[in-house]
Amino acid sequence: MTIIDKPADVPAPRPDTDSGTPLLEVRDLHVEFKTRDGVAKAVNGVNYTVSAGETLAVLGESGSGKSVTAQAIMGILDMPPGRIPKGEILFRGEDMLKMSEEERRKIRGRKIAMIFQDALSSLNPVLSVGYQLGEMFRVHLGLSKKDAKARAIELMDRVKIPAAAARVGDYPHQFSGGMRQRIMIAMALALEPDLIIADEPTTALDVTVQAQVMDLLAELQREYNMGLILITHDLGVVADVADKIAVMYAGRIVETAPVHELYKRPAHPYTRGLLDSIPRLDQKGQELYAIKGLPPNLTRIPSGCAFNPRCPKAQDICRTEVPALSLVTEQDGTELPGRGSACHFWKETIHG
Amino acid sequence: MGRYVARRLLQMIPVFFGATLLIFLMVNVMGDPIAGLCGERACDTATAAQLKRQFGLDMPLWRQYTTYMGNVFTGDFGSAFNGQPVTQLMASAFPVTIRLTVVAILFEIVIGIALGVVTGLRRGRPVDTSVLVLTLVVISVPTFVTGLLLQLLLGVQWAWIKPSVSPEATFGELIVPGLVLASVSLAYVTRLTRTSLAENRRSDYVRTAVAKGLPRRRIVVRHLLRNSLIPVVTFIGTDIGALMGGAIVTERIFNIHGVGYQLYQGILRQNTQTVVGFVTVLVLVFLVANLLVDLLYAVLDPRIRYA
Predict the structure, then answer these.
(1) pLDDT of residue A1
(2) A116 touches chain B (CB under 8 A)
């Protein structure tokens, strides 16, 4: 149905990214919120990097700080009550936290885009999807209303929405859940950003649609060679698309690993717990495993390792000393690239 | 849409008849209309009986009602105490009241929404708190107090305006009365806009708009206001009906010869025809205003569809 004969589908060549600086680097990021019960420390020193074409999956329970980190990167934290007391967010080597609001605005949507969880509430109910998509072109590229609409149709075609030209004037509530999430993806993709942050993009969808949406996202990412931060609590979603995984707990990264290694040999008791709680077909009839206890209250994070009250392997040292994210090696000392674990007993966990 | 409008218009018919009948009955309970004709003195019995026959007041009530309604449909609303046809009174009173309503509504829209936006975007700041207190004061002080106070200060003490409005009632003369008339609704519009805006500011789609990198102005005007003003529009729409009929106090204070003034005179002189005639028209205004609001709702919010 595309009526435009511009060769816009060809991805623009990326500016040179192999000059050593990663696309995005988060350094020792801290975020806290002032609440009535005290200061909630949502993020406590997160470090991660994403390169062009790479997919980083950030895994964790609700309240582990994964979404807050993403919002800090996007610059859409509610401040106040939110506050970033410490840390750097480097985008192409430049600290975004030191930029002016106007500079950051120009990056948002154009260089770094975000896909939200609930597409129905995240799309404006009273504006047509064509308008909301076209807005990206009108604001960032200064296109006319007519051109923007044509580009919007093109985008909808791109994310495989049937009869795009006929549906461009429809409103979000007139689309199904999967189609709405495609529109969100199209919106994030509009200006071919360098980095996309997808905050639980498939949580609100049913399983068959989840797979379609994830496939689409992975396909587009490959095609445009974008960096992707995939925030999720669903281990199944991650396995197929991610390159590396960062597991978060109580605002800290507790384990990092290339995706398949994490599944094979977790190096942190929390990750082990997460993997064990996946229902398995060959254990039908048995009781499901669950990590006992609840995620910690962020205003009163336990001393030492935050996971210690729930950890089956906790010793005295876990209650007093915060474990640093240390390199994980093989038993003979050979380095495992990209692996790290913030556990005093990572050796026992991975090799035990 | 067409079917919906047709259905709504048909629904107006029973409402119209019911309302007129009620008013008709209530006015009859008010007392003897003939007594009003004789002014302060009591009428002598022979004259009263003759007048009664002349006006058809000796007929049973249902006959009076059907006769009246029959006349109304031929455009004859009867005549007022001084023999002036009620239609003539309407022709002079309604334009004045409409002008007054327009002034009042403009105040509500311009000042009310502006204050609502300012406070809604700065919740908890000094501006917000002071405007909030101010609206509370305006809402709790009755209109006749604000009206008389402004008249005394602006009209008499400082002589910035004429304390009473001339029969022509031009827009310029109606500014202060319009403000008085609008004051309470204006405060409500401010509060409604503020709450609605503050609530929507936290919504997901506003967060999306920010994440899209839109300039702040565009986020507020296109995304936030567009959604937040839906309840405000409803309020202002229904307020048009209320302002058209409810201006009795303000019109009395500033001596404006509009609908409220004529209604007041009609009630005072126990003139059935003036009261029933005016109120009937007001009922129609109310019904039409409500219909328009409902239709506007569908225009503003695409999720609402009338079939």
Answers:
(1) 43
(2) yes
Of A110, A121, A171, the CB nearest to B302: A171
* Partner residue opposite A108 with nearest CB, options B211, B218, B301: B211
**Residues in chain A within 8 Å Cβ distance of B212:** 108-109, 113, 135-136, 139, 187
Containing A150, the helix (H) or strand (E) segment is helix A145-158
Contacts of B300 in chain A (CB under 8 A): 126
Using DSSP, state whether A216 is helix, strand or coil: helix
- Strands of chain A (E only): list them: 24-35, 38-50, 55-59, 82-91, 94-95, 112-115, 195-199, 227-232, 244-249, 252-258, 326-329, 335-341
- Positions in chain B short of pLDDT 50: none
Confidence of residue A147 (pLDDT cuts 50, 70, 90): very high
Reported as a single tens digit per residue, the pLDDT across A112-136 is: 999 988 888 999 999 999 999 999 9
Q: CB distance from A228 to chain B under 8 Å?
A: no
Task: Report the C-alpha gap between B86 and B91 in whole angstroms.
Answer: 9
In percent, the amount of chain A with pLDDT more than 90 equals 15
User: Looking at per-residue confidence, does A18 or A93 come out higher?
Assistant: A93
Find the mean pLDDT for residues A270-279.
85
User: What is the model's pLDDT at position B36?
Assistant: 62
What's domain A24-242's superfamily in CATH? P-loop containing nucleotide triphosphate hydrolases (3.40.50.300)
CB atoms within 10 A of CB A201: 27
Each residue's pLDDT tens digit, B255-293:
888 888 888 888 877 777 788 888 888 888 888 888 888
Say what the pLDDT of residue A172 is: 92
Type of residue at A184: M
Q: Which amino acid is at A306?
A: A
User: Among A123, A126, A140, whose Cβ lies nearest the Cβ of B300?
Assistant: A126
Torsion of CA B239, B242, B248, B249, to 10 degrees: -40
Could you give all domains of chain B from N- to C-terminal order, each with its CATH number? 87-264 (1.10.3720.10)
Closest CA to A156 of A131, A177, A133, A140: A133
Query: With 60 as the cut, is the pLDDT of residue A179 above it?
Result: yes
* CA atoms of B14 and B23, how far apart (whole Å): 14
Cα atoms found within 13 Å of the Cα of residue A235, Cβ hemisphere only: 19
Q: Is B101 exposed, middle or buried (0-12, 13-18, 19+ CB in 10 A)?
A: buried
Domain extent listing, chain A: 24-242, 268-351
Distances (CA, A) of B59 to A243, B31, B49, B64, B68: 94, 16, 12, 6, 12
Q: Judge whether B227 is closer than 8 Å to chain A, CB to CB.
A: yes
Please give the ipTM for the structure prediction: 0.83
Closest CA to B266 of B256, B279, B283, B255: B279
B223 and A127 in contact by Cβ < 8 A? yes
Provide the pLDDT for residue B302: 85
Contact B213 A76 (CB under 8 A): no
